[in-house]
Amino acid sequence: MKTYHHILTIAGSDSCGGAGIEADIKTISALGCYASVAITAVTAQNTLGVRSICKVTPGVVADQIAAVMDDLHPQAIKVGMVNDAETIRAIATTLCRYPLPPMIIDPVMVSTSGSRLMEPDALSLFQATLLPLSTLLTPNIPEAELLVGRPIHGLEDMKAAARQILQMGPKAVLVKGGHGQGREKTDLLLIDGSFHTFSSATISTRNSHGTGCTLSSAIASFVARGQGICEAVASAKAYLYEALRAGADVSVGEGHGPVNHFYDPQPLILTEQ
């Protein structure tokens, strides 16, 4: 029987469409995969910043996840914005009821505009319950700094942070270096005891809203399509680079605009079940 490569994304909704669930669906669809969702929060935001956040009740979040897992059986899961302890507990408790496919967690703690998105009391529960379920954790520099409790400057600090984060439970850690300065951006992957670096030229643009969501969803998509983590990270990095480049000079809003997710869209890929 034929089916699609299916990814469940668990994340918040972004009213301006550049990040969150909206970016996840665009990315997954552009890469020829099928997206299902569990919405954790509704945000009022635009390219200039976050105005307000309304949490979806934990029971409804759990019901969304269970409804998808009971019927659609995703090949990968992406977790994004989970900003409070009750929602984190509901997600972890629900997911533990199922045999889990690879799970990519993007710890959405700080928005592109600098707004804090995860409540302080939720961080310890996030580390204790969700990180051990993670196949890959993808923090950027500010998020990695929150997780390890110290500043990160340069590649050696990124390596030390990755080692420390790995001890919190994920099977692999990708520390994203996009917040660094210079002509080149380098991400660092720690997996199976080895470091791998992924470098690309810096693209001069303010249209970087939702890049973390886009990258993690792309990784989940390539994993669902059968790639290993290291290969999926490389493929996702290439996709994000081209999406950034294609949208670099496009004006959407007055602040940090979105990338061009559909610079080279693929039709839904059919696979044998």
Which range best describes the helical content: under 10%, 10-25%, 25-40%, 40-55%, 55-70% or over 70%?
25-40%
Overall mean pLDDT score? 94
C-alpha termini separation: 5 Å
Number of strands: 11
Biggest β-sheet strands, sense, barrel: 6 strands, mixed
Largest sheet strand order: 4-3-2-5-6-7
Low-confidence region ranges:
none
C-alpha Rg (nearest Å): 17 Å
Number of helices: 8
What is the N-to-C succession of helices and strands? EEHEEHEHEHEHHEEEHHE
CATH superfamily: Ribokinase
Q: Looking at CATH, which topology would you report?
A: UDP-N-acetylmuramoyl-L-alanine:D-glutamate ligase
**CATH domain class name:** Alpha Beta
Structure description:
The structure is a single chain. The protein has 273 residues and is an alpha/beta fold. The protein has one domain: UDP-N-acetylmuramoyl-L-alanine:D-glutamate ligase (3-Layer(aba) Sandwich). Helix content is 36%, strand content 23%. It has eight helices and eleven strands. The strands form three sheets. It has a six-stranded mixed β-sheet with strand order 4-3-2-5-6-7. It has a three-stranded antiparallel β-sheet with strand order 8-9-10, sandwiched between helices. α4 (123-130) links the parallel β6 (103-105) and β7. α2 runs parallel beside α3 and α5 crosses α6 (154-166). The chain is globular, with a radius of gyration of 17 Å. 49% of the residues are buried. The model has no long low-confidence stretch (mean pLDDT 94).
